[in-house]
Design goal:
mainly alpha, 0% strand, 79% helix, globular, 228 residues
Length: 228
Amino acid sequence: MLVGTIVNTITVIAGSLIGMLLGNVLPERLRDTVMKGLGLCTVFIGVTGMLDGENALITIISIAVGAVIGELLDLDGALERFAARLEKRFQRPGGRTSLAEGFVTASLVFCVGAMTIVGALNDGLTGDHEMLFTKATLDFVSSMIFASSMGVGVLLAASAVFVIEGGIACLAGLVAPLLQQGNTIAEMTVVGSVLIVGLGLNILGVTKLKVMNYVPAIFLPILLCLFL
């Protein structure tokens, strides 16, 4: 149980630590260039993930309702306040990216997508870890690249990987019927990918979206797919 989740979490931690060490020796000019490249790659990841959906109405309703929920709960503000306390201890000198931005960006990139959901379901239902092992390899490389420019926030995203994948695996018997209803997984991926595009635009400095306030939208397709 949870073997795939644990391996994926460890690879994110290892990749992040290596990336942070590399980032500490990179000059500021090079770090800024890498950061802009990450922004472009993040947009690309989001755009490719947006192509799997079949019902645009689900995405629109999910984003709109999710934004209302996130704003009412002030998820972005809560994360920023928590991150501010941690940054006093962990943020490296001269860091251009906030801990919260690194955490949210990495968490969405690592946790949104069919590989996360299906891999965790397989991990919990059948003990098949192959998909999560494959994802772990991809996340190891990604975490190194992200952490080299975004710092310790990427390392903390390992906790999101463990909680989300582990939660799905542990509750696989209960959530599998919901997630396998219709096109639910694909629609969740589309909504999450829209947020990833927003993150990419934030990294590039094009927008200043409070992406954390939109995160509840990712889970709304579970309900909407039952009716639409």
